[in-house]
Amino acid sequence: MFAPIQLTGEVWATMIFTILAFWGIAIWALVRTLRQEDRKVELLEHQDRIDTYSPRALSDLREWIEENPDDSYAPDARRRYNECVETLEEMDRRFYDWSDEEIAALERLDDDRESSTGA
Q1: Can you give the pTM of this predicted structure?
Q2: Residue 15's Cα: distance from chain center in Å?
Q3: How far apart are the first and last CA of the chain?
Q4: Which of 15, 30, 50, 89 has its CA 20 to 30 A from that of 99?
């Protein structure tokens, strides 16, 4: 037959805390993600373009390009880097936290390497 489970108060408290913490974090993450997506849609409707890289991500991309200039993915990475710089210079509203000084300091990468390889 089925015997009822006898749990101590500490076990019940731990289970309730764990369940509340899991659902609390899951709901927070869902709401945060949906708000970010709403903001992206609003930006796309307003200006038809959006910045695709955060300052950190674009810096990491440039660092990778400089460290791997002969990699087969380098021409595509340079093109995407330059597209992001161009987009940042043309947009008045941005998704990521770019300052005007950061954008002014960005330089396009030379595409000569790409054209000389025939890519």
Answers
A1: 0.70
A2: 34
A3: 74
A4: 30
- What is the token pair recorded at 20? 């509340």
In one letter, which amino acid is 118?
Answer: G
pLDDT at residue number 48? 86
Asked if 49 and 87 count as a contact pair (C-beta separation under 8 A), the reply is: yes
What is d(CA 9, CA 98) in angstroms, rounded to the nearest whole number? 51
Rounded CA separation 38/109 (Å): 32
Residue carrying the six token digits 């030379």: 110
Residues 6+ apart with CB under 8 A from 65: 74, 77, 78, 81, 109
Sign of CA dihedral 89, 90, 94, 99: positive
Contact 97, 55 (CB under 8 A): yes
